Amino acid sequence: MKNYNPESRKAEEFINDGEILETIRYAEENSRNIPLIDSILEKARPRMTEGGVHCAGLTHREASVLLACDIPEKVEEMYRLAEQIKQAFYGNRIVMFAPLYLSNYCVNGCVYCPYHLRNRHIPRIKLSQDDIRREVIALQDMGHKRLAIEAGEDPVNNPIEYILECIETIYSIRHKNGAIRRVNVNIAATTVENYRKLKDAGIGTYILFQETYHRQSYLELHPTGPKHDYDYHTEAMDRAMEGGIDDVGLGVLFGLEKYKYEFAGLLMHAEHLEAVHGVGPHTISVPRVKHADDIDPDVFDNSLSDDVFEKIIACIRIAVPYTGMIISTRESREVRERVLHLGVSQISGASRTTVGGYAEEERPHDSEQFDVSDQRTLDEVVRWLMQLGCIPSFCTACYREGRTGDRFMSLCKSGQIQNCCHPNALMTLAEYLIDYAGEDTKDMGFALIERELEKIPRDKTRVIARQHIKDIMESNRRDFRF
Ligand code: SF4
Ligand code: SF4
């Protein structure tokens, strides 16, 4: 396609409208082409190699054919394959995190978000460092170890210095046996220099949702403010990587535009990062437009059914097997239950999307960014995951061991990361159970740990993990990791 170039640094060339439209046309044309669909599924299957399990992944065109296909047996096959890939690389582990809203001051005009500048009836709140201390203690008291901080774009109220100060405060708080060990950051597109400052502050992943890859819709949905600049926003991940951040998280807000367009755009963005920087995205998030103050999701006529949502998740898992996938409490327990086994590797639990919502339990939901569908406590979510046969993990080891970017990806691609993830999940779950869990959760959790310890293939690793878990149970020693 004219001007399409995944290696280009120009948004219009790596997210090329012509290529996306041609991909959608090709996918529709081949949506019932069984030999082609079979060959795509075959290519994506996990294979045993000398270095471990390997998956080839798919191009955006191949994955789009799967997404377009509605032959029931083939769709079933896709789900089985997604599950197989998820098992091969992520096992039954689900990493837990919580969002922390720092400030809802924002100068942008995003029409789907209640924090848009013209919303005059939402209370504007910015957390002080003391407020943050209270929020973080409340989060630590729940058992969280991994946060994603969020703030609107406002150079006066939320400048980079404020974000950096917040990160420092968060990392500095030690309350009982608690600690926040990884802070991921979701703030507006910024400069290489600012990304370098974030890197130096020790952030985990830099997350920025594209919202929509469709340029015209993007311009209409972001009518005012710096975010109106499609190119600056779309090229943000390149600047982040230039600034030294090698773990970046992509995402679109499904429901704003036609999902087939977004799906192809998302995968093209991942291909671009791989082509230019040698590392694909660390995570992909799959939020859907939800109700909030001043926002009615029904005005966006591209909303997705749960069935389509499920298929998108399966197809992403098949296309980019090494990329973590995140689902938030925007989704109900029922939806989360349907998609967990298809490839989701991280979920949020007990989230408050209100600024200051953790310390102030009784805080009205008047400053929420979106309605939370899944309102359960973290303990309930942990128990529910275990009932579903998953291991809730509070692991943050990689970034702290310097396993980021291509170092992380090479371990991930060889399947060796499993040797760390599995025992780390068990040790961090043991910490959670001892320090924060209710009695029922504790009983269920230790029984699960006992069963899972037996599955660790290397004798040496099993013995060390068992000893660390014993130490956690019998002392205040924490933070063991492989
Ligand atoms: S989506 Fe982000 S940038 Fe847009 S109005 Fe909301 S907080 Fe501001
Ligand atoms: S070992 Fe690394 S990849 Fe595995 S769960 Fe922990 S932080 Fe994630």
UniProtKB/TrEMBL annotation:
SMART domains, per the entry: BATS
A Pfam family: Radical_SAM
NCBIfam families: rSAM_HydG (TIGR03955)
Full protein name: [FeFe] hydrogenase H-cluster radical SAM maturase HydG
Database matches in InterPro entries: Aldolase_TIM, BATS_dom, FeFe-hyd_mat_HydG, rSAM, rSAM_sf, ThiH/NoCL/HydG-like
Cofactor: [4Fe-4S] cluster
Nucleotide-binding is among the record's keywords: no
UniProt key word Metal-binding: yes
Biological source species: Ruminococcus gauvreauii
Keywords associated with the record: 4Fe-4S, Iron, Iron-sulfur, Metal-binding, S-adenosyl-L-methionine
Domain Biotin and thiamin synthesis-associated: 285-392
